[in-house]
Amino acid sequence: MYRDASPTPLDPALVDAVRSARNVVVFTGAGMSAESGVPTFRDAQTGLWERFSPEQLASPDGWEHDRGLVWAWYQWRTGLVRRVQPNAGHRALAAWARDTELTILTQNVDDLHERAGSTVAAHLHGSLLAPRCSTCAAPFPSDGGLDVEPSGPIPPPTCPVCGGDVRPGAVWFGEALPSEAWDRADRAAAACDLMLVVGTSAVVYPAAALPLRALDSGATVVEINPQSTDLSAAVQYSWRTTAAVGLPALVDAVQRR
Ligand code: APR
User: Residue 152 C-alpha to ligand 1 middle, in angstroms?
Assistant: First the structure.
C-alpha cells in the first residue's frame, strides 16, 4: 500500500485522509526540532552522534565510566534547547489542537512542543528538564544548562536528599521507558485512526513500534520526513518534506474548506 507523495507537493488524498480522521496521534522525533536548531541524532552531517559515541554519553555504562562527561554533555544540550525557539511545525500542531482531537507523543527530550502551546501526552525518552538523583530518584531542579559547549567534564550535582549523584532525566540506551508514558502512548497508537510520524528515523525500539501498532490497528499512517526510513515502505503516505514546512501546509490545507 505504499504511496510516495514525493518530492514536495501535498497530495490531496493525504489531506482528505487527515481531514476525515477523528482521532489523530502525532508521533515526533528529533527531526521535529531540527529547524529550531537542535541537531538530530543520526543525520550524517549534523547528528550529535557524529561527534560523540552514544555509548559514552547516553548509556548506564557511559555514566558509570565518566559521570562528569555525561553530565556536561546533557548540560550543554539543556542550554542549547533553552536558547532555541519552537518552529513553525510545533506552532502548527498547537494551533491544530485547538479544534481537533490530537494526541502528541514524542521521543524528544526538549520542551519545544509545550513552549509552542501543545500538551504532550507522553515524553517517551524523558526530559532534559527533569534531572533526578541516580540513587534515590528524588527530582532535582534543572538550572537551565550551559551557555557554551563545555571543554571537559563537569561533576554532577549532589542530591540534597541522599547525597547521591544527580543524573540527566533522559532515558538511556538499554533503559526501560517510563511505564506510564509508554502505556499512554501504546493505548493512543492502538486507538487512533490516523498517525502522523514526524522526523524520526524509526529505529529505536520500543518507541519505533508505535507506528506499527497503529498500522496493525487499522489506522492510516503518514510519515513526514525529508528522507526515507525503515518505516516508509510500510505506511500509506510518506511525504518528503520537513516538519516546519510540511506541518503548517498540511494543517492549513486540512482546515481550509
Ligand atoms: N523535518 C522532519 N524530519 C527531519 C528533519 C526536518 N527538518 N530533519 C531531519 N529529519 C529526519 C531525518 O531524516 C531522520 O529520519 O529526522 C530523523 C531523525 O532521526 P534520529 O536522529 O535517529 O532521531 P530519532 O528518530 O528521534 O531518534 C530516536 O534515538 O538516540 C536516541 O533517545 C534518542 O529519542 C532519540 C531516539
Answer: 27
Residues 121 and 139 in one domain: no
Are 198 and 230 in the same domain?
yes
Q: Are 141 and 98 in contact (CB under 8 A)?
A: no
Please give the pLDDT value at position 4.
Answer: 42
The predicted model scores a pTM of 0.95
Atom of ligand 1 nearest to the CA of 42: 21
Cβ pair 118, 93 in contact under 8 A: yes
Q: Is the pLDDT of residue 140 over 80?
A: yes
* Residues 1, 75 contacting (CB under 8 angstroms): no
For the segment 112-126, what is each residue's pLDDT rounded down to a tens digit? Answer: 999 999 999 999 999
Same domain, 78 and 90: no
146 shares a domain with 112: no
Q: Does the annotation mark 113 as catalytic?
A: no
How far is residue 237 CA from its own chain's centroid?
A: 20
Whose Cα sits closest to atom 10 in ligand 1?
A: 31
For residue 39, what pLDDT band results from cuts at 50, 70 and 90?
A: confident
